[in-house]
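Single-stranded-DNA-specific exonuclease RecJ structure dump, as promised
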Amino acid sequence: MLKSKMKWDFTYSSGHTDDDLIHELLRQRGIHTEEEQEKFLNPSLSELHDPFLINGMRKAVNRVKEAIHLGESILVFGDYDADGVSSTALMMECLTSMGANCDFYIPNRFTEGYGPNEQAFRLAHQQGYSIIITVDTGIAAVHEAEVARELGIDLIITDHHEIQKELPDAYTILHPKTSVQYPFHELAGVGVAFKFAHALQGEYPEHLLDLVALGTVADLVPLQEENRVLVTYGLEALSRTKRPGLQAMKKLNNIEGYVDEEAVGFMIGPRMNAVGRLQDASPAVDLLITEDQTEAEELAEFVQELNKERQKIVQDIAAEAESMLDASSEDEVIIVAKEGWNPGVLGIVASKLVRKFDRPAIVLAIDEEKQEAKGSARSIDAYDMFENCMQVRDLFLHFGGHAQAAGMTLSLENVDTLREELCRLAREKLSDDDYQQSLGVTMSLSLEEVTIKQIELINQLRPFGMANPKPYFHLKSKAKEVRLIGSKKNHLKFTLEDEGTRLDAIAFGQGEAYPLIAPQSPIEFVGQLSINEWNGMRKPQLMVEDLAVNKWQMFDIRGSKHLNKHFQKPADDIACVTFSEAVNDPDGLPVFSFMDEEVKGYPSLVVLDLPESLEQMKELLSSADVERLYMAYSLKEDAFMQTLPTRDHFKYFYGMLKKKGTFDLEKDAVLLSRHKGWRVESIKFICNVFFDLDFVTMKDGYLRVNEQPEQKDLTESRTFQKRQEQIEVEKTLYYSTYRELREWIETQMENTGSPVKEEIGHGL
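structure tokens r here:
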């Protein structure tokens, strides 16, 4: 067996065809009526809501238009992540196209922290700005709104983050969640900025949709309703964008043709995020708004190098954090803190810890001078990080975020208290099952059902993302081939085959499962379907998320001289079994007799030698609860390959002995061997059989016929029986094919608890 890493949640209804596959997928998304299905499968810009349904929009539009008319200076105050950067670029382009006197400002993550701050506002006042428009930030800026009023600056907040207990007293706030009448509350920061731009310009600013797609996909907001419309059209706009910066980024990352949500989520978005994680994020905004091709290429190269640096920093901090958790990873909520960590990448590190330990995680960088800790949190599905942190809000100097992600600053003295309180809340609210990662299975498919047509039907649901996840499918098949791939040999590639249908399956980062998968084992996979296009060929493939083998497995390492290489270390679940005492056991593994009760406690057994009879092997199989069986024995004496003397051999020898009178086992056996071409061992075997049956007597090394023997059959000889048993053991357990041996063992396991059928022997 090989247990799955995650809990597979089978939620589909049984039975489907190609025709109703799409309807089943839509049903699982809560889409039932024909009208709902039409809107989902064919989103239209006409479905976008009136921006003036957002509270404060008319007031904000009037003030900005007044400022443009009067020539007042406007400052766009953004955030340093991909959503904030794209929001800033979008608002800058909108205002510039309207003739505004404007510039942008993004706080430095390391010197200023998240969101608006008093020092920046006072600097803006000194520089003559009379309006500050925040994008993707500001909903928690209560103090900064007071500072703006004091300075005579009109603060317009556009944001989408969770609303806290007190709203800032700003000039106006544009936030879907403060607007009961606005139909959709899950816009990204760039989505809110787009609505503001729409209201300012009086028409859909379609030329800004590429920026909307970038920020919305990167910020992991639900891709439903308005977001689905914006991203669908935004990805098309991104695919044909004329922005030199985005063109340069696409070229550097070999993104050609249609730019899908995966290219944004895994390539462009992380690179835009990398800038603000390591330094001032302004170059990322410059990259998006520049009209100069040379500058765009230089900025794209710069961003690319920063991303490589970010990846190395994340790898190093994650390794440190994991080493710190060896003794304390049993906490319900993981909190690790250390001086010197880069605060800009701690959210990524927290995500890695969540995946590894199946726990909510907070990763903090310590500032000894300020006696503060600043960092990021990521969570599991069952634990709302925002809600639980808000219950201990007094412990934070700054806090904000969502259910699954948050950012925070707190006094160093409060770190241990925060750990205690969040762990207490987790104990009160969560069960053990809540900590195991769950993998929703959309549908089970047979190998022959995985076709290009099927995958194209599934792709009608794109763009995939939050609240519209890419479907996971369950398949079961034997693998014709399993091999390790990749420069580090840490990925698995399967060639699945069933009744003439073949499918490639790739399991990235799951190479550790390779030695735990036996040939011809029925493997169950859960993964996502995609189309592999190479050299003009298109074929379906399965990208494996998790796998399992739910039946016992047999590993055929008969005759191997290097047993240790076949086992993973440490191997606490493996024990060796012997039918004798003279065996060489693999280093470090316990060895038991096949009759030992302790054998039952090990799911993996290594059979080190052959039994004396098949009955002994049957006894082992009936008494042990085996998940993995390693057949690791060799032959010492080869009975099967030796010819068993026939009745004619026995008849000739007996007649010869009666005629000769005596037989010297040492000298005469050699002479008879030369004369008849028999093996000396066969002659001695015949002698032992006759001795067992009292047909002969032995004295001083000479064999003589017993003149009045009792009539007996050859098969009554224990020597004869043992040779037959040995031949049958070798034939069944050693000279059998993998399939034959596995089927024999399977039969014995099925007969557990009932009388085992007698094996048919090869008699004379």
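The longest helix spans residues 293-324.
lmk if u need the other ones
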